[in-house]
Amino acid sequence: MTAYLLTAAGVIFLTVLVSFIIPDGKLNKSVNFILRMVCIGVLLKPVMGFFSFPADEDKELADYTYVCKIYADTQSQALEEDLNKNFGLDCACEVDVSYFDGEIRENGVAVFIEDCDSAKLDSIWEYLKSLGYINITVNEKGG
Questions:
Q1: pLDDT tens-place string over residues 41-75
Q2: Three-class DSSP category at 135
Q3: From the CB of residue 106, how many other CB atoms can be counted at a distance below 10 Å?
Q4: Cα–Cα distance for residue pair 132/89, rounded to 1 Å
Q5: Distance separating alpha carbons of residues 135 and 73, to the nearest angstrom
Q6: Is 0.85 surpassed by the pTM of this model?
Q7: What count of other Cβ atoms lies within 10 Å of the Cβ of residue 90?
Q8: Which residues share a beta bridge with 99?
Q9: What is the secondary structure of 58-94 as a DSSP string?
Q10: Could you give the C-alpha distances from 129 to 2, 3, 37, 43, in angstroms and in order?
Q11: End-to-end CA distance of the chain
Q12: Residues 6 or more apart in contact with residue 13 via CB below 8 angstroms
């Protein structure tokens, strides 16, 4: 509070001092107007503090749950098409994607295949591992 009072007193003192130094005429009116505006600004600064709004630092700019869902659906569909093309299988894939610590990450993948032998399941698991997937689950769907 003391710093505010000293600032206000200093600005008012400078305004009075400058008004004595500046000669009469148009320049005097302009300088006095500017100095008065500065004085009003300094005097109203504490009042303007009541109207300031806190910054929303925790508010996120995107809905990462929605982004992760769309990304997971797209990746699941692309993986189904890739497995169909490479293995000739009709399968269902679920890629798990989440947002954590500022990153969108793939947490795992599950593949469900109908009527498939264990050797084919193992080869699909190895294929997914070579693609860089983690937490891989390859199961045969129960009919």
A1: 888 887 777 776 666 565 666 788 899 999 999 99
A2: coil
A3: 17
A4: 20
A5: 17
A6: no
A7: 11
A8: 104
A9: S--SS-HHHHHHHHHHHHHHHHHHHHHHHH---EEEE
A10: 68, 66, 70, 68
A11: 78
A12: none
